Amino acid sequence: xxxxxxxxxxxxxxxxxxxxxxxxxxxxxxxxxxxxxxxxxxxxxxxxxxxxxxxxxxxxxxxxxxxxxxxxxxxxxxxxxxxxxxxxxxxxxxxxxxxxxxxxxxxxxxxxxxxxxxxxxxxxxxxxxxxxxxxxxxxxxxxxxxxxxxxxxxxxxxxxxxxxxxxxxxxxxxxxxxxxxxxxxxxxxxxxxxxxxxxxxxxxxxxxxxxxxxxxxxxxxxxxxxxxxxxxxx
Length: 234
What we know:
There is one protein chain. The chain is α+β, with helices and mostly antiparallel strands. The chain has seven helices and eight strands; from the N terminus they run H-E-H-E-H-E-H-E-E-E-H-E-E-H-H. The strands form two sheets. Strands 7-6-1-3-2-8 form a six-stranded mixed β-sheet, with helices on one face. Helix 5 links the parallel strand 6 and strand 7. Helix 2 (about 65-70) crosses helix 4 and helix 2 (about 65-70) runs parallel beside helix 7 (about 205-225). The longest helix has 21 residues, at about 5-25.
């Protein structure tokens, strides 16, 4: 991590803490879970009976630290990787993506067993507790296109499930504003730097993690206890 990036993260953490103190808030939750105690409705369209035991999903929903640490704790998820999607290989580095000029979004690749958990259920978690799908090109304090909400589908079936689910949620007015999540084909996924992998697990006392990401895990456990599993980095 460059010195400039480190200083920026430190300043951001101080500013977030200041906001929490001034408002008297006990915690700041970056996602739809901020005002919701129950999960959103399940998708009416989901995968047919799967035969394969491995499938890949790629989601972008703000800083990839929080997205990864939440999906790591879901039964049926076998691996996660923080990285970048939406731009070219030559610009898939943290410093370049942070410039907001690459087209990349901070993303997480999720490998899961569809016989244990469906793609639609992962989407339900994504929209319920991972992020706020009504925020355009930002999540909470993180602003820019690299923090946009995106579903990078890997199959036509994933595309249909995602687009139908968004239409279902919008029609039911589940959120106070229209969902702005993009649904786009996955062209490539580029692994992020090693220090970004399991970042929340390796830096549990980081103020940003405590304020922005720990509440997401708590919301997952509260809203989806049947899906929750403990996670320890290897």
